[in-house]
TrEMBL record:
Origin organism lineage: Eukaryota, Fungi, Dikarya, Basidiomycota, Agaricomycotina
The protein's name in its UniProt record: Retrotransposon gag domain-containing protein
Domain of life: Eukaryota
Region listing for Disordered, in residue ranges: 1-33
């Protein structure tokens, strides 16, 4: 080609223009709301966490967020070993040797009463099962009888069968007196050194006295006249007039 043709080709070919970048004001934003396009999108796992992006409720992003399942704790995995299957919440048992615990020391408390207390305690605690009663009967018994009871009690037998087995090893023990005359004398001596100066103290003395005295009268260990005479002995001098 000649020089004129080359110049003609140069004039016919338009020069390449660099691509123009749109200004931020020209980027279309739905509903004229600001949006952060450079931030990665993470799944929401906590309903308390909120986004700082003001998103319209009618936008596609809002609809997609509603479809993301929220995180919920696995309560069944946490509590399946501490919650009974029947929904009964187990309470804490009283400590061994505590005031609320059943007691059998082979002296004052009858074995039949002890076993009844064990039965009632397990029912109140939500464990009305033979195995629980057998274990608690062994747990609360006095240490002197533990080894013998451990050989007698069997979890393969029912609670009633175990009770009968225990009673055969303690013939006549059920007839041991719950209270003695000495118990009443000790109670009277204790209150004689106290100040009974109001109706509440007097009512407390009367109730505790009658618990022991009525038992002694029932077992023919004390007559009614003896009970009335000893009743006044526990009261202060001002009550004797």
């Amino acid at each position: 080609m000649g020089k004129a043709a080359k110049e003609s080709n140069i004039l016919l070919t338009p020069p390449l223009q660099p691509a123009r970048q749109a200004r931020p004001s020209q980027i279309p934003v739905p509903n004229n709301q600001p949006i952060q396009v450079s931030s990665p999108v993470y799944p929401i796992i906590n309903p308390i966490v909120t986004t700082s992006l003001p998103i319209s409720e009618t936008s596609n992003i809002h609809q997609r967020l509603l479809q993301i399942p929220l995180y919920t704790p696995a309560y069944d995995r946490i509590y399946k070993h501490t919650m009974p299957t029947d929904g009964v919440i187990l309470k804490a048992y009283p400590g061994r040797g505590s005031k609320e615990a059943p007691i059998f020391d082979g002296h004052k408390t009858s074995i039949q009463r002890y076993l009844e207390d064990i039965n009632e305690l397990c029912i109140q605690q939500g464990e009305d099962k033979d195995v629980a009663k057998i274990r608690k009967a062994l747990w609360y018994v006095d240490y002197r009888f533990y080894d013998l009871w451990k050989q007698i009690l069997s979890e393969t037998k029912t609670w009633e069968e175990n009770k009968l087995e225990l009673l055969t090893h303690y013939p006549g023990l059920n007839s041991i007196y719950k209270y003695s005359v000495n118990d009443l004398m000790d109670f009277i001596e204790k209150y004689s050194m106290m100040s009974i100066n109001n109706q509440e103290n007097l009512a407390e003395y009367h109730c505790e006295f009658m618990v022991i005295a009525s038992y002694l009268e029932k077992e023919k260990l004390m007559t009614k006249d003896d009970i009335n005479r000893n009743y006044m002995m526990g009261l202060p001098e001002n009550f004797h007039n």
